[in-house]
Amino acid sequence: MNDEQLDRLVDKLGLDRKVRLLTGATTWRTAAEPDLGLRAMVCSDGPAGVRGESWDERRTSALLPSASALGALWDEELLTELGRLLAAEAIRKGVHVVLAPTLNLHRSPLGGRHFECFSEDPELTGRTGAALIRGIQSQGVAATAKHFVANDSETDRLTVDVRVPDRVLREVYLAPFERAVEAGVWLVMAAYNSVNGTTMTASPLLAEVLKAHWGFDGVVVSDWAAVRTTRETARAALDLAMPGPDSPWATSLTDAVRAGEVPEQAVDDKVRRLLRLAARVGALGPHRPRTVPARGHRGHRALLRRTVAAASVLLRNHDDVLPLDPAALSTVAVIGAHAATPRTQGGGSAEVHPTGTVTPLDALRSALRGRARVVHAPGPALDVPPGPVTPDHCTDPRSGAPGVLVRLLDGDGRELHAERRLSGRQPEPTLVAGAHTVEISALLRPHTTGTWTFGVGGFGRMTLRVDDRTLLDDAFPRQTDDPAIVHVTPPLRTARTPLTSLRPVHVVARRELLPGDGRATVLAAGPPAPDVRAALAEAAAAADGADAAIVFVGTTEHSEGEGHDRTSLALDGSYDDLVRAVAAANPRTIAVVNSGGPVELPWRDRVAALLLSWFPGQEAGAGIADVLLGRAEPGGRLPTTWAARLADAPVTGTRPTRGQLPYDEGLHVGYRAWLRTGREPAYWFGHGLGYTRWEYESVDVPPLAAEGSPIALRVHLRNTGPRAGREVVQVYLARPGSTVERPRRWFAGYAAVGAEAGQRVTAEVVVEPRALRHWSTRDQEWRTEPGTYRLLVGRSAGDIRCERPVTVTGAP
Ligand code: BGC
C-alpha cells in the first residue's frame, strides 16, 4: 500500500478514532478499526521463541538457543533460517509482531540480560540481528529491533540516565539499530531508560536519527509501560504505546491535541505508520490466511539441534581429547546437576514453554546405548532457592493427575474457577470477575526424608501451608514497578519443614489479588541438600572409574535474568569444587558450561576440554552430544571477551550514581577495552576451536582503496588437521597515527569457509566502507580519514595471523 492510499485511510478517521489506535487494546494486541479493514495485530515476546498471547505452560513453543549463542554462530544464512522458524511459530500462534531481536550490547559481563543480546561488538551484533530480521520478515511477520538505545544493563532500568557521548552513541550503540533499519525492520522498540537526560520514549533520537537520518518508515513501539507522560512522548516520534487499554495516551492525547499541545499531523503520522505495518503483516484489507512454511515439527527440531552444535564454543581441547570416539569408550561419567536439568533459556519476558527438553544426560545415554555405560553423579546441590513445583513430583489433589490445582476464590473463600495446570509458576492465572485470591495446591510425594524448603512467590498478602502447618502468613508489599519482576519473576518467600520419604503432603500457596500487585504467583519446593562431601566423593569416584568424565556446570535463574544485573561472575561454589574433584580423578575431564553470559572458570587449565553451550534451547542435549561425540564440529566463536576474573574486566559498571550511568570507556567496549588496558582476558572475542587445524598461508589485499569503496581481501588457508572443518576468518582494522581517537583495533568483517582435511581454501572477506568511517560530532556527519590503515587477519581479536597495509585515498 502506498503513502497516498494510507493517507486516504487516515483521512477517514476523526481524532478520537485515530488516537484510539495508538494505544494497545490489551497487553499484547493493538486496536482494530473495522471501518478501515484494520484488524488487531498481536505482539509476542521474544528472542528465544514465540510465546504467543498467553503465558500458559500448556501452549508450547519452539525454543531456540539464547541470543548469546546466536551471536556465536557467525553464520548469517543459518540465522536467516532461524528467523524463518520464528516466523513460522508466529504464524502458528496468530502473532503478527515478534518482539525481537535485542540489539543492545554486552557492555558489562554483569548485564542481567546478557543472554538476550548477541555480542559486545556493534558490527557483529548488527550483522547477526539483520540476518535474523530478514528471516522473520521474509514470511510477512514483523520483527522489532529493541531496546532503542543504550539499555545494556538492568539496574534501575526504568529510570537510569545513560550518559554517552554523541560519537560513541553513533559508532557503538546506535550502529546495530542502523543495520536493522537497513535490513528493513518494521518496528523499533523505545527503551525504558534515558539517554543524556531524556527518557527514550520521548527522545529526540527517535525523530532526528532513527526517522530523519536513517529514513525508518516503520512503527516505534514503547517498551511495555515505558510511556509515562502524554505530551512529551506524543510530540517525540513514538508511535504506539503498549500495553493497553490504559496508557498516558488514550483520551489524554486527544485532549492534548485539542489544546494545541500536540500537532494533529503528529498523530496522523503515527496512524499512517501503524497502517503501513498492518499492510505489511496482512492485518489490513481483505483477510488472507497466513500459511506456515512446511518444515514441520521434526524439521524445526533438526534445525535447532544443528544450531546448538554450530553455536557451541570449544575454548580448550588439550591433546585433542574431543571429540570422544564412541567405539573407544566403555564407561563415561556424566556429572553435575546441569546434565540432568540443563538451563535452556534465560529468565524474564523472553521465556517460552518448550514442548520438551532433551537433556545432555538423556542424549548421551541414548547415543551410547549398547556401546558404553553412562554413570551419572549429580554432585552437590546448588545453593539456590527452590524451583516451582513440576508434574514430575506433584499431582493435582483433586484429579490425581500430574500437575497442580489452580483455583480462584472470592472474598469469602468460595471457589469461582479451578483448573489443573502443569507448573507451580503461574505468571498469568486465568482471571474471573470477583476473584479475590489465587490458590496453587499440590500433593507432593517426597523422594527423600529431611528438611524440605517451600516457597510462595508474588506480591501482597500470601500464605503457605503444608498439611496443617502454616509456614508463612504475611504481607509482602511490592517494592518495584518493573513489569518483568511484578508480572514474571516475583520474589520468593521461603520456609522449611521436615518431610518423610514417600509420605505425601498437601501443599497450598495462596495470594490475595490486589490491583497493582500483578498476577504472577508461584508455589516452589526443594528437597534437602545431600551432604556436600559425600556428593563430591561420589562424583570423583564416578569419574575415577570412567574413560572420560563430562562435567556440566552452569548458572541458574537466580544469577541471570531480566530486571536485575549480576553481582558476581562466580559459579555456585560447589560447582568449582566439583570440577576440581572430577578433574583430579580423571585427566580426560571435559567441562561443559551452561550459561547465557560469561562466568569465572578458575579451574579452566585443569580440565582437558572446555565447551560453552550457552543456554542451548530445547534441543540442548542432542546438540551437545553431537559435538562431544564428533557427529558435529563445535562451530561457535566467542561473540564477547571472557575475563578470567571479574576484577580483571575493564568495563563492568552497571550501577548508576545519582541516577546516572556514564559510559566512561567511550568507544572502548569489549575487546577494545582489553587491548587498550593491555590486560589479557581468559578468552578473546572471536576465539573458538574446531576439530581441525588451520594454517593461514597468505593474504591478498589491494594496496589502495578509494574512500567509500569496499575492500576485498582474499585469505588463503589450508586445513592441516585430521578432519573436515569450518574456519571463521576475521578481519580487524587499525589506524596508527589517526587524527581522531580510535580503538587499538576494531572488528571489520569475517568470512566462514569449509575445507576437507588437507585441502586449501580461500576466504573472501569484504570490509565495507562503513568500517572505516567515524562520526564527526562537529559536522554531524560520517567522515573517512584518508591515509594508511592496517588490515589484521586472524582467528580472534587477540590472535592475529597476518597484517597488511591499505591506503585509503580521498573520494574520486
Ligand atoms: C521487556 C521487553 C519485552 C516487554 C514485553 C519488557 O519488560 O523489556 O523486552 O518485549 O517487556 O514483554
TrEMBL record:
Residues 727-797 form the Fibronectin type III-like domain. The keyword Hydrolase applies. The keyword Hydrolase applies. InterPro entries: Cellulose_deg_GH3, Fn3-like, GH, Glyco_hydro_3_C, Glyco_hydro_3_C_sf, Glyco_hydro_3_N, Glyco_hydro_3_N_sf, Ig-like_fold. It comes from the Bacteria. One of its GO terms (molecular function) is hydrolase activity, hydrolyzing O-glycosyl compounds. Gene3D superfamilies: Galactose-binding domain-like (2.60.120.260), Glycoside hydrolase family 3 C-terminal domain (3.40.50.1700), Glycoside hydrolase, family 3, N-terminal domain (3.20.20.300), Immunoglobulins (2.60.40.10). It holds the Pfam family Glyco_hydro_3. SUPFAM superfamilies: (Trans)glycosidases, Beta-D-glucan exohydrolase, C-terminal domain. Keywords: Hydrolase. GO terms for biological process: carbohydrate metabolic process. Belongs to the glycosyl hydrolase 3 family. This is Glycosyl hydrolase.
